[in-house]
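Students often ask why inverse folding is considered easier than folding. One informal answer: many sequences map to the same fold, so there is more than one right answer. In these notes we will look at a single instance of the problem. The structure comes first.
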């Protein structure tokens, strides 16, 4: 009888641990800012990657967007990183060359015309609400928030929101030291971070 009671108590204890651990998975935790290098908007290092789930608001299957830093190079004495893009099963290879400089995250834009290529700002940082800048393809972007809390999965990110003024309701959200967290495309689709690796 004593052994049966002990086994029953042990089983209840183990079950309560499992239930409490399962409940912890769904609690929201903030990404520890002490472990992030918030001096940059997007940490660039070979091996870093970000996976976002693109959820269509129309009748179309969801798809995974994967951004990976696969190498580095030097352009105009500036250390840059090769940004590899995969859209579902389609491998686009190196889609951009990125670097962090004063003022934020930049992309090397090669126009193919001698003397007209250069770095283009894609995410201003540090930023203030109302800041505007000209990005890729000459679109104007505006900083619409600097403290948007986005909870995705069990993590909460403090993000800067950028709106593409040329595209109705098109937004990008970056968390300093983390990089891209969310993209909204005019009510058509939303992409949210669900997996990442930052070195």
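Output (designed amino acids):
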């Amino acid at each position: 009888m004593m052994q049966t009671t002990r086994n029953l108590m042990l089983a209840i204890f183990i079950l309560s641990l499992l239930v409490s651990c399962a409940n912890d998975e769904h609690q929201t935790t903030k990404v520890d800012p002490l472990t992030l290098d918030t001096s940059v908007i997007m940490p660039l290092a070979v091996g870093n990657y970000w996976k976002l789930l693109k959820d269509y608001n129309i009748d179309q299957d969801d798809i995974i967007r994967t951004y990976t830093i696969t190498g580095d190079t030097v352009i105009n004495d500036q250390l840059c990183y090769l940004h590899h893009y995969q859209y579902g099963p389609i491998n686009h290879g190196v889609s951009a060359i990125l670097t962090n400089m004063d003022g934020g995250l930049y992309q090397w834009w090669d126009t193919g015309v001698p003397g007209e290529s250069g770095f283009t700002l894609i995410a201003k940082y540090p930023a203030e609400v109302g800041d505007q800048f000209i990005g890729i393809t000459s679109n104007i972007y505006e900083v619409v928030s600097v403290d948007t809390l986005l909870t995705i999965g069990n993590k909460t990110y403090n993000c800067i929101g950028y709106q593409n003024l040329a595209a109705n309701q098109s937004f990008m959200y970056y968390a300093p030291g983390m990089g891209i967290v969310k993209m909204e495309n005019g009510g058509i689709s939303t992409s949210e971070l669900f997996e990442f690796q930052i070195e």
